[in-house]
Amino acid sequence: LVFKLYSPNNLDKLQNEYTAYLKIGNHPRFTQCYFKGKRYLVLKYERGPTLYECLEQGIVIPKQVIQDVEDARNFARSVGLFPTDIHLKNVILQNGRAKLIDVSKYIYPNEDKRWEHLVEGYKRFYWLIRGKKIPIWLLELVKKTYLRQVSEKFSVEDFGKQFMQMYKNN
């Protein structure tokens, strides 16, 4: 079990996440919420590396993971949620399949493009780093640079080329 504790100032986030878990119910691509306390949620502990850890450790991320997350996002939309904030640390790899572990922002009607950008990056560039260990400093640099640059005119291709060049030079 995992106990997700909320500060007294964030009890609205607790209720929002609990509401999202109630709508999701028991779905194979999401972790489960067992109980809501006054300041905490009791969630199922999910084993496996996050996609971030997969990149760090050189663990291959199969295409099935991309499809699983797409299926999970479609399901979330079908129950009135807005799947957002899906990134490398919110997806766990379990036996070649994806498990999403954070739905705290799913009730807000604002879907960011982070997952779409990750999918495009996977399709365009992952074959170059597949199974290779990526240093944490480089993963963090990519993340920080992405968060600074992302906008309506953001180009995954240009962004990826910039970092592939940096990776090749190290």
UniProtKB/TrEMBL annotation:
InterPro entries listed in its UniProt record: Kinase-like_dom_sf (IPR011009)
SUPFAM superfamilies named in the record: Protein kinase-like (PK-like) (SSF56112)
Full protein name: Serine/threonine protein kinase
Question: What is the source species?
Answer: Thermoflavimicrobium dichotomicum
